[in-house]
Amino acid sequence: MITSLAWKNIWRNKKRSLIIILATALGLWGCLLAGAIWMGWGESMVDTAIDRDLSNIQIHKKGYTQNKEATNFIPDGFRIIKETQSIAGVKAVSGRTLIDGMASSPISTFGVKIVGIVPAQAKKVTDIYNRLVEGNYFAGNGRNPIVIGKKLADRLGLKLHSKIVLSFQGLDGSLNYAALRIVGIYKTESSLFDQSNVFMQQADLLRLLNSKPIIHEIAIRTESARIMPQVYDALKTKYAHLAVQTWKELAPEVAFTSAAMESFTYIFLGIILFALLFGITNTMLMAVMERIRELGVLIALGMKKGKVFAMILLETILLSITGGVAGIVIGGLSIAYFSHTGIDLSALASSMETFGTSTLLHPFLPLDMYIALPVMIVITATISAVLPAWKAVHIQPSAAIRTY
């Protein structure tokens, strides 16, 4: 009975109720869409970093991340590559030979990381081969082919089929020089990566180093992100003498940004609900003040103050939930639409490349946020109802009937 009466009371002043419902719905819609864009941006940073270079898990010799010298390679690296391929949950494995060096052209010089790869393996772990804007991914039989980033090519004034000179220190400490032919130019979401990484066939790099086969880094892709912890535990146990790290350990700034996006969304949502709290409180106070005589009569006729309090509380909750559900539905539909089509931010491409984020964002919100939001709305409505309900239960029936 009280619920039915509370629902009818909401619509006694339709214009005022519709305004607060619309304000709640639009506030939540804007908040949810903004939060979904933030989370989509964070997720894009993670996905592009994993696909571009990090992979899900990497294995190095202990101490390599602090001392990236050519001699700090993984003992029996090729054997470990074969072994990891048979571990449950591992989708693909790629071994890399890494050398720091200088890339030179007739007009400029720039420091780079030279990455020696087996192209067939690398294709299964990273998507650089899909990022080519010119040329091919080691498809020909030419001598000393190399694939470089577009940012580096522009910086050095180089084009497809141009020669680039690399200088690097060999394992014995000698300084080596090599002229290579550019067979492909790639462009990723990160301009920093594009200007700092060049790719060679591993056999060519080992020949130039005059070295036996060595591996500095083993990149591993798992079958899914969900199974990554189990694969990590298995690798950590099996290769306790090596440094086994997930992408979160390798790029903590990317992991932090991704996690922070969800926290920012909850904070923003809290701010919106806090602002709505005052609007709802004001609306319900006006509703109580308009009905002081009526409420006085109800109390005089024997309606318990607890029921009066519950009625005002229910009115506030029903009003807030109505606006909240409308906002969640509109927000959910908007997020679903933009998640499917994506939001094109190519106009901000240069800024997005600084963060290593795709210019086509796909907003999303986790399911737990849709579950938590109605709870937050009810809590906000309950707080909003305290003052109006307190005002209602402290009405003196005799004074209310005489005065109003």
Describe the protein in words.
- This protein is α+β, with helices and mostly antiparallel strands and 404 residues long.
- The two termini are 26 Å apart.
- Helix 10 runs parallel beside helix 14.
- The chain is elongated and about 105 Å long.
- The mean pLDDT is 86.
- The strands form 2 sheets. Strands 2-3-8-5-7-6 form a 6-stranded mixed beta barrel, surrounded by 4 helices. Strands 11-12 form a two-stranded antiparallel sheet.
- It folds into 2 domains: 197 residues, no CATH class; 168 residues, no CATH class.
- The relative contact order is 0.18.
- A hairpin with a 4-residue loop joins strand 2 and strand 3.
- 56% of the residues lie in helices and 19% in strands.
Structure in a nutshell:
By secondary structure, the chain is an alpha+beta fold. The protein has helices at 2-10, 14-54, 77-85, 119-125, 150-156, 191-196, 202-209, 228-238, 247-250, 252-290, 292-300, 305-341, 349-355, 367-393, 397-403, and strands at 57-61, 90-104, 109-117, 132-135, 145-149, 163-169, 175-186, 197-201, 217-222, 242-246, 343-344, 360-361. The chain has 15 helices and twelve strands.
